[in-house]
Amino acid sequence: MLTRREYLKNSALAAAACALPTSLLQAFESSKLMARAIPKTGEKLPIVGLGTSASFRQIADQQDVSALRDVMQTMLDNGGTVLDTAPSYGAAEQVAGQIARDAGMTDKIFWASKVNVAGRGGSRADERQARAQLEQSFKYLGKNPIDLIQVHNLGDLATQMPLLQELKEDGQIRYTGTTVTQTGRYAELEKAMRDHPLDFIGVDYALDNRTSAERVLPLAAELGIAVLVYVPFGRSSLFGRVSGMDVPVWAQEFGADTWGRFFIKYVAAHPAVTSVTPATSKAKHMLDNMGAAYGELPDAATRRKMEQLIDSLPG
Question: pTM of the entire structure?
Fold first, then answer.
């Protein structure tokens, strides 16, 4: 039986694998994938998954999507399962669903999609549009029940949350939630968390974007709501801030030999976070991202040290 190290050396990703630090290969080989429980059920999810916005979406809108097939296979081969998408991400939802069906991976993925038909609230027209969009998602993803559907950006909760709850009770959706990635709307998110029976929220959180840790993440922990984290690289701004810099030696203590794993491990270390879903269209980046789910996570003191480092750099 091949070890994970041997698998990587013999896979189509051999070049990417060989370029990774020895410590990451050792972490993969140990097969100690970190996972967190969904508070409402205890079901565990890997702490790192895949988002389909940004570069994934850009490739999905093109004719050749083979790179995305490699990305999804790399996630699954290294223990990941969570794939976050949305109808508003161009062709991402449709393409991801088709790739999964063609490769026989549909049932191996924890599918997290969204509904985002924002209207006046409560009208039959709004509900019809939302139902039509959800039916399209079921068709694209090819899985019933879909694991998670969230109301995208708090859109028309009055119409869409009762609809999602109805589908959950009918067994067509396993979990429901809502998302927002705008700091100015956190108060609305907090209200939704208190007013609706949410299983999940999706929110932005990064080393240079820590506002959600002040109130949103603690409230999620208090209410037993799972958290998917979006844009953990600060919408890529973090990579710009550390351009030309080496990852500090002390980060090797928790397996962060690359900046990508440095940033993801910081976010995943927050106890309220269930899974981090950075978007990528490159298998080598997916492999590096999955590496953050192995080894150790920084403790509270180390996280403060990480914050101080990033805060000391030009914004």
Answer: 0.91
